Amino acid sequence: MRFRIGLTFCLLLAISVSAMAETSLSVANFRQNAFKYLRGTEGKQDYARAYRLYCLAAALDDPKSMYQLGWMYFNGRGVPRDRKIALGWFHRASARGDGYARKMIRHFGDIPGQDDPRCPILKNPEDMTRRHIQTWAELLGRQFAVDPHLVMAVIKVESNFNPNARSHVQAYGLMQLMPATARRFAVDLLSPVENMLGGVLYLRWLLRHFHGDVKLALAAYNAGEDAVKHYRGIPPYKETRHYVHKIMAAYHRTRHPVPEALSF
């Protein structure tokens, strides 16, 4: 995600109150809404959503969500019953101070722990494989109503799947977030998972802002939404037009369903 001469961080941050409300996500938001879907409070039981939200919170280092993922695997709620993966989550949660996880380890500590392939928690960019990237594209795309194929096409062009990619204008990571964009969506651009989260949230915002027009959303991702507004279309920048063309050659769809307002 790069910005042309004349577009400043201030322009990027000058967004409406409603847009800011949509992007002010947190671990507490993810965990609390996951619990609603897990327990079916308010008539909204949905194990798949609960799992995705707990996974996101766990990726943001939340021990309570790690414990809940272990509970889901231990009891076979929305995922296959698997005590090895459950104990893997309990060990992660316990290492971060969760008392319930420690109790489970005391009772079932003889079961070897195992990582969860559906929710790979990776802090070291060197560990992020193409398979991991695909897993997170699917998880984030489904949760935030952005086509995972579009997410993967953007990553291919932005970084060629290199979590350590850095541009000459200091865009960083898989989705080439600028520091201002990372602040806007409250993510750590150095974490590969959070980098993807910020990129997906920005794509989502742009798809809403440009009413599902994929080309305009991509042009704004590259050049900034203000440039697209100024030129009332794709800006006449060679880099931006080439960027949009390369992604569209892989994605092929000019329209994307407009994501609804976030309701988790």
Structure characteristics:
mainly alpha, Lysozyme, 14 helices, elongated
What report would you give on this structure?
- With 264 residues, this protein is an all-alpha fold.
- The protein has a domain of 123 residues: Lysozyme.
- The protein is 59% helix and 0% strand.
- The protein is built from 14 helices and no strands.
- Helix 3 packs antiparallel against helix 4.
- It is elongated and about 65 Å long.
- It starts with 8 loop residues before the first helix and ends in a 13-residue tail after the last helix.
- The relative contact order is 0.13.
Which band does the percent of strand residues land in? under 5%
Q: From the 3D coordinates, which CATH architecture of the domain at 9-24 and 145-251 would you assign?
A: Orthogonal Bundle
**Number of helical runs?**
14
Shape, please? elongated
Question: What is the chain-wise order of helices and strands?
Answer: HHHHHHHHHHHHHH
> Which CATH class of the domain at 9-24 and 145-251?
Mainly Alpha
Terminal CA distance = 26 Å
Largest sheet geometry: none
Number of strands: 0
Overall structural class, as computed from helix and strand content, comes to mainly alpha
| Radius of gyration (Å) | 19 Å
Give start-end ranges of low-pLDDT stretches. Answer: 3-23
Classify the helix fraction into a percent range.
55-70%
The CATH topology of the domain at 9-24 and 145-251 comes to Lysozyme
Mean pLDDT reading: 90
